[in-house]
């Protein structure tokens, strides 16, 4: 447990650690405690991330105060720190768009939640989209969901951005009975997409990733074909693997040459679905590609998670993700766990392309 916090015994006299799947505890902070955060005051490399102290958040009337147990780290965090994201944060900034933990306090107008509840919070949907690299966070209750007892805090934090993104991508573009190509297939969203596409009845799943370890993970999660897109001619290897056939749906998040090579594999009436920040930096389809789209009735669809969500949809689809996790149908696959104060190491781990699945910070 973090300094300044104690576990209050339950009715049976037992104290429970916050990592426990049970929720019969209330987390209490010492009156003079100040929360620890990781912030950055200048754009640049991972070394810009520094441990600091801030006053504890004041919970508003429609908010809950969460003592954070697990924090999801996303590639978008890296891009924000580098000032390469779609939005430039005001400095100094505290990154972190998804957390799981225990409610410490609730606002006067909050119903349905109480101190001690196990919850996950979608900071990315609140309009602020940040603040999770901390010990505490105050969040509008609309973007808070209960975490069931058979889902751990780590799984909950790992499933917020990646699980919801994958689930809504497949809700919007059905892959049932179709062939689907998933790029960055061993990443957070990609690994979820491979598993959920199999669950949703895709006829053939082709995974593209970089390196044998990542290809092995994609195969383990249900990919029929796994190809290293760092190897020249990888797209022709995909074509050969599908017996010269075309791909019906492409889920693409890498941009650049990978996106252009993948587009050439798309078949008649196929759909290229673009998501993720990297395509904002390098997306180039010209007149030849446009001609192909017109005469083959192809389409390109953009996807951004936060604008699609409302509180009801957020809770409904996250609950579906949690059910899939609890049943063993989806594995969040956490490849890196770092103490909060080592957030810079977590970012370096992701930037070096060493991560697979999800990376977490643990206060």
UniProtKB/TrEMBL annotation:
UniProt keywords, alphabetically: NADP, Oxidoreductase
Pfam families, per the entry: ADH_N (PF08240), ADH_zinc_N (PF00107)
This protein's GO CC annotations: cytosol
SUPFAM superfamilies noted in UniProt: GroES-like (SSF50129), NAD(P)-binding Rossmann-fold domains (SSF51735)
Residue ranges occupied by any Enoyl reductase (ER) domain in the UniProt entry: 44-361
The UniProt record lists the keyword Signal: no
InterPro entries, alphabetized: ADH-like_C, ADH-like_N, ER, GroES-like_sf, NAD(P)-bd_dom_sf, Quin_OxRdtase/zeta-crystal_CS
MF GO annotations: mRNA 3'-UTR AU-rich region binding; NADPH binding; quinone reductase (NADPH) activity; zinc ion binding
Protein name (database record): Alcohol dehydrogenase zinc-binding domain protein
């Amino acid at each position: 447990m973090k300094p300044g916090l104690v576990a209050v015994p339950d009715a049976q006299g037992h104290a429970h650690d916050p990592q426990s799947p049970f929720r019969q505890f209330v987390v209490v902070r010492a009156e003079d405690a100040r929360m620890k955060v990781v912030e950055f005051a200048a754009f640049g490399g991972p070394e810009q991330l520094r441990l600091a102290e801030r006053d504890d958040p004041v919970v508003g009337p429609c908010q809950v105060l969460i003592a954070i147990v697990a924090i999801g780290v996303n590639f978008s965090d890296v891009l924000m720190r580098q000032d390469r994201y779609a939005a430039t944060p005001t400095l100094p900034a505290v990154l972190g768009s998804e957390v799981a933990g225990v409610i410490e306090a609730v606002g006067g107008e909050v119903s349905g939640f109480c101190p001690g509840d196990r919850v996950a919070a979608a900071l990315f949907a609140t309009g602020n989209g940040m603040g999770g690299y901390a010990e505490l966070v105050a969040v509008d209750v609309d973007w808070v969901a209960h975490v069931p007892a058979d889902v751990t805090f780590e799984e909950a934090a790992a499933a917020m951005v990646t699980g919801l993104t994958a689930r809504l991508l497949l809700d919007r573009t059905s892959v049932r009975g179709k062939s689907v190509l998933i790029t960055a297939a061993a990443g957070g969203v990609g690994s979820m997409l491979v598993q959920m596409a199999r669950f949703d009845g895709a006829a053939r799943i082709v995974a593209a990733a970089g390196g044998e370890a990542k290809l092995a993970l994609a195969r383990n999660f249900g990919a029929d074909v796994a190809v290293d897109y760092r190897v020249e001619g990888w797209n022709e290897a995909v074509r050969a693997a599908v017996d010269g056939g075309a791909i019906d749906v492409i889920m693409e998040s890498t941009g650049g040459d990978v996106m252009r090579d993948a587009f050439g594999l798309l078949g008649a009436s196929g759909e290229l679905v673009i998501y993720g920040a990297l395509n904002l930096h390098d997306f180039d389809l010209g007149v030849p590609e446009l001609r192909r789209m017109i005469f083959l009735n192809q389409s390109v669809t953009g996807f951004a998670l936060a604008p699609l969500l409302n509180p009801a949809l957020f809770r409904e689809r996250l609950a579906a993700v949690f059910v899939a996790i609890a049943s063993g149908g989806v594995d969040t696959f956490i490849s890196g766990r770092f103490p909060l104060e080592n957030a810079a190491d977590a970012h370096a781990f992701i930037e070096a392309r060493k991560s697979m699945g999800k990376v977490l910070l643990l206060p």
